[in-house]
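From the pipeline queue, job 12 of 40. The input is one protein chain; the requested action is below.

Action: predict structure.
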Amino acid sequence: MTSTNAATPRSAATPATPGAAAIILAGGRASRLNGAAKPLLEVGGRTLLDRAIAAVAGCDPIVVVGPPVPVRGEVVWTRETPEFGGPVAGIAAGLANTESDEVFVLAADLPNAEEAVALLRRHPPLASGEDGICLADYSERMQWLIGLYRTDVLRRAVAALPDGGRDASIRSLLAGLAVTALQAGDLATDVDTWDDLERARATAQNPTTTAHTPPRGSAPDEETT
């Protein structure tokens, strides 16, 4: 794995991922939010799920792994097998609905989803031997569920796990791949607790004073699906 500072100048200003698909993981139990439907929580007048869908606008298809709910935009709905089988099972379900060469993988609990994906899009095309890119938080921890990956590599990684990835961790799926980390700071913040939600809402209301407040620093919740 390699790490790239987000401040490094980029040669391409246009998206480097034409024709990419997207998988949004939206089916978790949200145990730290008392079972609330986390993707439907609102930040800045929009649900977290709608923010995720907007972030990957232009992808074809946009596959949402979770129970169908009203959303802004056209998506393909599917569920992991079994339901609540974990994020890797969710990725497997999403992969079954796309044939693209590259795919965004995004958790549905990211208040900064649009800015986070924009950072991924500004990265140059994946280089030979590079399996994907993902964001890293303030502590330089890989945020696997904010990334762009080669679809065939993900398929092979899922196939190598028992039970179709049921209850497997994201680390077990991706840690052996050549993934470049882009330093993203607060763009990698997710919503796992009520405090996280209030912080995200405060930032949305007053971004000039709160946007650079360091987050908790924990990795995205692996119960996202």
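Job complete. The first helix runs from residue 48 to 55.
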